[in-house]
Each structure stands twice: as structure tokens, then as C-alpha cells.
Amino acid sequence: MAAGRSGGGSSMALALLVLAASAASLLPAASLSVTSPYVRPPPRPDVLASLLQDDDDDGQTPQQVHISMVGPDKMRVTWITDDEAPAIVEYGTTPGQYTLSATGSTTTYSYVLYKSGNIHDAVIGPLQPNTTYYYRCSSNPKRDFSFRTPPATLPFKFVIVGDFGQTGWTESTLKHIAGADYDMLLLPGDLSYADFIQSRWDSYGRLVEPLASARPWMVTEGNHEIEKLPLVEPKPFKAYNARWRMPYDAGASPSGDNLYYSLDVAGGAVHVLMLGSYTDYDAGSAQHRWLRRDLAAVDRRRTAFVVALVHAPWYNSNRAHQGEGDAMRDAMEALLYGARVDAVFAGHVHAYERFARVYAGKEDPCAPVYVTVGDGGNREGLADKYIDPQPAISAFREASFGHGRLEVVNATHALWTWHRNDDDVQVVADQVWITSLAANPACHRSKAGKM
């Protein structure tokens, strides 16, 4: 059954808003620079205790279910069982009637003294766009799930938030996201904050399952995913790669590495780059060569928006993590600028900040908008100390937990909104229209010189 979308009246109102905003979709940062005076309460404690064990888990009951896109019309379903179970997903468009099925594979991993459950993975499809599918995993009748596929055309709605963790504030953020109508969640790193304690990956999987099983979650790694122990566990990203497999080997531009990849949504109208801040990115590296190929293949005549996600921000006026994204920026900023990437979203800094369009440290009308959204609710607390005075390129900053939403309305305009978690009530604290650089004639000069 196709899921409903906005009606004609709301579409007309939105069109009028776009017209009203088009002349000043991104005002000069000097006229917008704001450091919010809002004072955030301290972080809430972890919620791990209530998530470590399912009371009704018989060893074959699917848990930690999450989904991710694979190409334009397929979905990867990932789940875990404590005991052996078939890697089968049964699905259909009617509740309880599973007329289709797909069989995948099962893996496990060990980490010091920890042994994971059976991690199952199956790709289902082809699927119809903007349609609700009902499914179950391992043919187990105890739990039924459903998800809605993304639309094949604009408008397209993203939720973007990083540095989740598993605190009371994380629960608040997830509750606010659950109340939104969105098509896909993008997460720029730092998922579970397991930090070597592998059972925290399991509790995190249970915490996010209600959302991650219902909409595709596309993630990239942060520093808390590295989990490398010299001599004992020398291989980094062991748990992350085993549990959160992304479509790095799918699409028109496979990267060959789960730590970075790209995807197209809305029929190719939006191209999303998920970049790896904690794997090689210098010129000549595999990631750098892949990024150059990927961007060169993007046809901006049909791709209205290109957005990128990294973990460590390339621009940051917070005192926390100063300069940690600079080396990656030095290596890759010219590539993104030459391809007219519209926006770059980062995590890592536990606060919110939006910059103007920036290239090489200066405002540039043909450069990306930079946004930091490392404010999902982590247990390390907020980064509440900023550089003073606020740089002219920084438009708005606030040390609060929250999440962002990017609605690509049409081929020329996208609406970015940041929602603060204000005592469990979400409040729109920052909002701006972003105009596609592909729609700006002044930014149409050859990319060759910058790539």
C-alpha cells in the first residue's frame, strides 16, 4: 500500500514559501552570526540497564533489526539472534502476508572475551517506492516489522544527526525523530559509544530498533567506532563493520570499503556522500581516488543537490576538537568545491553550529554550507565553550542536544531545520533555505580546475 504524502494545499503553501525565500536563501553570515544564550541541562545517565537483555528472547527471536538502502529499489535487513536461525526475510505489502522472501548470510565476530550473536543480513527487492512493506526475520512469528520505502521523486526528507550514544537525551532525540515524517536518516558517526564494551553495541541496537527497522539508516564511522586495542584487537572497526554494513559495493560508484560510500535518492535528484574521517583520505589514497571518480560521474543537470557527511567537522568555532578535521579538509575540500557540493554535515563536536557557504576559510557563494550536528545525546556531555568572538563565517551556534531535518523540496530549494531538545519538547531553533548550486548560473564554471 502506498503511503500518503502532503496534499495540494500544503504543497501550494510550501511553493509560496520557496518563492519568498529564493532571493535570500542564505544571507551573508555577518548579518546572521548568533551564539545562542540557551543553557542546556547536564546530560542524562545511560539507559543501558533496561536494554541489556530481552526478557522474552528465546535465542531465536530477532533483535536489533535495522535497514539500509541498497541501490534505488532494494533494502538490506540486518538482525541478530543469540542462537542459530535462518538468514531469511519474508515480506509483503499486506500485514501478516509474506508472499516474498530473500535469503542472505550470517556472520559472527569475537572481541577479546566477547562473542557476538549471529548477525544476519539479507537484501530484499526490487521494491516499489513510497510503499509500506511488512516483514519478519528468520521466519520467526514472535515479531513483525514494517518500513516505508523512500520516494523516487522529490520532495525528499532526511533526518541528520550524529553522536547518539544511549542516554536519556538520546531517548528524547529518538522520540522527537519518531514524531517526524521523514524518508531516511543520515548519521555522521559515533553510534553506540560502546568504547570497547561490546554489550553496549547490543543495547544500542535494541534502543534504536523501533526507528532503524522502519526507515533506512545510512551511517558512516566516527572515532568511537575504531575500538582498536594494540596486540589484543589490532583491527579497527571490527564491531562497526560487522553490525552496520553499508552499500559500499553497490550503485554506479562502488567504493570497496564500508567506511565510505555514496548513494542516490529521489531518482538521482540527490547524491549523498558518506565519507570516512578515520581511514586514509590524503591525495593518492583509495578514498581520495574513489571520491574523485564519484564526483566526476555526477551529472548536475539531473542531480539537483549533492550533500556530504563526515565525522570530524572541517569548520568549527567550538573549543572542542579544534583542528581535528583540518587535514581531511586540506585533502578533499577542493574536490567538493569543484563539484559544487551544496552542504557538508559533521558530528564529533557535541553541539550545533551552522556556517555560511565557505571555501578555504572564506565566504564563497559557490561553496558548501557547513553544519555540525554532533548533538544526538551522547554520554560525554555537551561542548559548551566557543571561540570568542564568533567568526563571521559562523551563522548560528548552540550547545544543545537535538537533531536536524533537511527537506529537499524541489530541484532548486532545500529547507534545513534544527530542532533543539528543550526539556523533552522539540523546538525549532535554527532554520534556513539552501539553494542548489546547480541552479546558480554563477557557479557553473568548469570543475576541472578544482578537481
UniProtKB/TrEMBL annotation:
It catalyses: a phosphate monoester + H2O = an alcohol + phosphate. Its EC number is 3.1.3.2. The keyword Zinc does not apply. It holds the Pfam family Metallophos_C. Residues 62-149 form the Purple acid phosphatase N-terminal domain. Residues 1-23 form the signal peptide. It is an enzyme of class 3 (hydrolase). It comes from the Eukaryota. Keywords: Glycoprotein, Hydrolase, Signal. The keyword Cell division does not apply. One of its GO terms (molecular function) is metal ion binding. InterPro entries: Calcineurin-like_PHP, Metallo-depent_PP-like, MPP_PAP, PAPs-like, PAPs_C, PAPs_N, Purple_acid_Pase-like_N. Belongs to the metallophosphoesterase superfamily. Purple acid phosphatase family. This is Purple acid phosphatase. It comes from Panicum virgatum (Blackwell switchgrass).
